[in-house]
Specification:
The chain is mainly α and about 120 residues long. It has one domain (about 5-120). It is about 80% helix and about 0% strand. It contains six helices and no strands. It has helices at about 5-20, 25-35, 40-50, 60-65, 70-95, 100-120. Helix 1 (about 5-20) runs antiparallel to helix 2 (about 25-35) and helix 2 crosses helix 3 (about 40-50). It starts with a helix and ends with a helix.
Length: about 120
């Protein structure tokens, strides 16, 4: 039972960050699974994607919807792209070496953070 609690707490942190900032899976959960729990990059990414198949963020999205901050049509179109792109991204990731995948992951987070901090 004590093995379950840290994962629930990690999910709670990811959920709060998801609702607060619109981030969670890639930015919080994957690095935590790799660096805190010692998981391999592929397992962390795959597990996080599997977790996201559940309707877990619906309560956060509902809060934004109630405040008038959701464009359902655009969300649907992006969801279609995400559905198809997720298949191909998973295939590509599973054909990369762990070190290369981790470097690509880190570079993506770095570039996005630089743009968010210094971009207009």
């Amino acid at each position: 039972m004590n093995q379950i609690i840290p994962y629930i707490l990690l999910g709670l942190v990811g959920g709060v960050m998801s609702g607060l900032l619109g981030i969670g899976g890639a930015v919080i959960l994957v690095p935590a699974l790799v660096y805190i729990f010692g998981w391999q990059q592929h397992m962390a990414q795959g597990t996080t994607l599997a977790m996201l198949t559940m309707p877990i963020v619906i309560l956060g999205a509902l809060q934004y919807y109630r405040a008038g901050n959701v464009n359902l049509q655009v969300a649907l179109f992006m969801g279609i792209g995400l559905f198809i792109g997720g298949y191909f991204g998973g295939w590509i990731a599973n054909n990369l070496q762990t070190d290369m995948l981790r470097k690509i992951f880190g570079a993506a987070l770095f570039l996005i953070s630089i743009k968010m901090i210094f971009g207009k």
